[in-house]
TrEMBL record:
It comes from the Bacteria. It comes from Williamsoniiplasma luminosum. Pathway: Carbohydrate degradation; glycolysis; D-glyceraldehyde 3-phosphate and glycerone phosphate from D-glucose: step 3/4. This is ATP-dependent 6-phosphofructokinase. Homotetramer.
Length: 324
């Protein structure tokens, strides 16, 4: 194999640059030319394809976001759109692709493989919602950002004898909320997989208030309640705590990648290039315990999500000393 491409797709995640950098450096060490595709699948159909520069690869390791750009492109499901992409790849004599992104990029990678371009995917998303990988590139950095933010919010809540409702990202996956709650000792947790009703949250904070606890932190996953500010008002009305809501928002997606995200990005990128050199495609790289594995994309589509209910309940119990 002489020429490969690399693209990032879906929501950007810290560590995507480290992965792109490693693809370029490792492929180059293997005497393979690398092309970067700008703005994900969109760049494939618009021929935004450029030969990678090795100095560029060195310079982006520590950068947040994705320097080569990303996009979400639902139209890629259309065969006509993909035919354009394949024609552009052939024009540059690119034989295979490394696709870095979330589960939205899986199908595109599988379909392109079926059309003769071997694709290998890397799990890149802050959400940790890729069932075929224990951890995703970007999760650790986002988690650390969230933990720092919650610690700071706790400082001020504790100073003023208040309660906070904090909404974190994760799409349909509660891992960011769960792990951040564990790391910060959050008092009330409601995740996508283990949801509390608004009334349950109100009741729990009210019960905590009766014990005289000085501050309360409630961590909730996004997309579960119509308005966390309205929820905070309900908490305040019942518990008596002055209650503030914070939506952490896109601050969670940015920032220089953590060492663990860079490690996962670089090692999985090398592993992906190894698969391509071996002539394989239609694979997604995942972390299984401490081991990297390459799974058929089709086999990952029906993999069940890990049930985190027991773990969530255990953490709720850990933090339940104030509940009577
Ligand atoms: O998938 C990453 C993610 O940040 C999710 O956590 C969130 O639900 C979504 O993307 C937000 O997307 P956008 O930036 O398009 O609003």
């Amino acid at each position: 194999i002489k020429k490969i491409g690399v693209l990032t797709s879906g929501g950007d995640a810290p560590g995507m640059n480290a992965a792109v950098s490693a693809v370029i450096r490792y492929a180059s060490s293997n005497k393979i030319e690398v092309f970067v595709i700008k703005d994900g699948y969109k760049g494939l159909i618009n021929d935004w394809i450029e030969q990678a520069d090795i100095n560029y690869a060195q310079n982006i390791i520590a950068l947040g976001g994705t320097a080569i750009g990303s996009a979400r492109l639902p139209e890629f499901a259309d065969i006509k759109v993909r035919e354009k992409a394949v024609a552009n790849l052939k024009k540059h004599a690119i034989e295979a692709l490394v696709v870095i992104g979330g589960d939205g990029s899986y199908m595109g990678a599988q379909r392109l493989t079926e059309m003769g371009i071997n694709c290998v995917g890397l799990p890149g998303t802050i959400d940790n919602d890729i069932v075929s990988s224990d951890y995703t590139i970007g999760f650790d950095t986002a988690l650390n950002t969230i933990v720092q933010a919650i610690d700071k919010i706790r400082d001020t809540m504790q100073s003023h004898n208040r309660a906070a409702v904090i909404e974190v990202m994760g799409n349909q996956c509660g891992d960011l909320a769960l792990y951040a709650s564990i790391a910060t000792g959050a008092d009330v947790i409601s995740t996508s997989e283990s949801k509390l009703t608004e009334q349950e949250i109100v009741d729990q904070v009210t019960a905590i208030a009766k014990t005289g606890k000085r501050s309360v932190v409630v961590v909730v996953s996004e997309k579960m309640y119509p308005d966390v500010h309205a929820l905070a008002e309900k908490v305040e009305a019942s518990s008596g705590y002055v209650t503030r809501a914070t939506v952490l928002g896109h601050i969670q997606r940015g920032g220089s990648p953590s060492a663990m995200d860079r490690h996962l990005a670089v090692t999985s990128a090398m592993f992906a290039v190894d698969q391509i050199i071996a002539g394989k495609g239609g694979l997604y790289i995942g972390l299984d315990g401490t081991k990297l594995v390459a799974r058929d994309i089709n086999s990952t589509l029906n993999m069940p999500r890990k049930d985190k209910t027991e773990e969530t309940n255990k953490i709720r119990f850990l933090n339940a000393q104030f509940l009577k």
